[in-house]
Amino acid sequence: MLQQITAPLRYLASRLGRFQLLLLVLAIIGVVGGLIWERRRHPPLPPGAAQVATTTATELRQTSYRIDGSAEDVRAFYQQALPARGWSYCGTQAADRCTNMPSIVEANAQVTDVYRRAGDTEYTGPTVEIWPIPTDDSQTFVTVLELRGG
After folding, report:
1. Of 95, 107, 114, 138, which is the most buried if we count CB atoms within 10 A?
2. What are the extents of the domains in the chain?
3. Which pTM does this prediction carry?
4. Does 107 have pLDDT greater than 70?
5. What is the structure's pLDDT at 42?
6. CATH number among 3.40.20, 3.30.310, 3.30.70, 2.60.40, domain 48-147
7. Given this model, what pLDDT does residue 104 score?
8. Dihedral angle of Cα 39, 45, 48, 53, to the nearest 10 degrees
9. Which residue pairs, CB below 8 angstroms and at least 24 apart, start in 73-81?
């Protein structure tokens, strides 16, 4: 079994040279590590998320998707998933000093959950803001906003 694993490595080493093989392995590890880091730094999507669209601007990253289920299911998912990534629930956009989003539509402030980094006691760091909107077809349309701090 070990021979089956090492045979391709020995072949590559004979074709490339040991130093080039080492560089190739390090480059692959770097790319995989970078992809994992990039994926972990953004809020996760719940299982079953569909029609995912992401837009990035200077101060924010917006991800929208549809999911079968209720807004409460979406909230429950993020209440479990985000603390594991270093975020803590701050309140809704209506709560004092929670949001980094400029007040555009007041009616939505009560339904948008805001998360801040666990140690952000000054309320100046980035936020993750989750806005689930129930639809008529028992799905929920979700917008996730990642906003830089001020």
Report:
1. 114
2. 2-40, 48-147
3. 0.71
4. no
5. 74
6. 3.30.310
7. 59
8. -90
9. 73/46, 73/140, 74/46, 74/130, 74/132, 74/140, 74/142, 75/113, 75/130, 75/132, 77/46, 78/43, 78/113, 78/115, 78/130, 81/43, 81/44, 81/46
